[in-house]
Amino acid sequence: MRHVLTICAALTISLAFGQSKFESAILKGKNMIATLDTVTDYQNTINYFERIAQKETDQWLPLYYQAQVMSFMASNDPNVDTKEATLNSALELIQKAKKIDKNAELVALEGFVQMLRLTVDPATRGQTLSPTIFGLYQQALALDSQNPRALLFMGQMQYGTAQFFGTGFEEACANVQKAYDIFEKQPDEPTINPDWGKGSAKAALANCNQ
Q: Which CATH class, in words, describes the domain spanning 111-210?
């Protein structure tokens, strides 16, 4: 019996250590995201999360962060062709991650990437992509009605649509406000889970309060 307990204890310690190592790796990657500056920084961070994803094939977070950094890099890319290619690669990673765990974070990020694709050619893509983007945010909120990124992105999309059609911003700003309030309540401590977007929510809220 003592032998069995010893084996179980060893397995528990091993699993805990493995999880801790994974968490440490993700937190290190998130620190890299926080200091992104040059193209080399972006590529190194993408490669870093790719290496984690190759080892942790049953985890969705490395794929998520890889796609997130790709979306950030694409948003700063003035070259339409490479921007489009990067966004498409991000979408492929998100689809791969959704096979592991379809959750609100992944669906919201998918909508965010599609929203960036819309900005590549809004005149041509607006009519076809807008319903897709709104649909993704609705899916994300159906999975988690309190997800601040889904609320923020929905509000930003609604705000842009209202600007285009000259309609009111009430619904858009209500979603942005709700997102910001949720961000404000989040604990200020490191987490492996997505927690980005508060700065964007603050900026969007400033537009609403003008």
A: mainly alpha
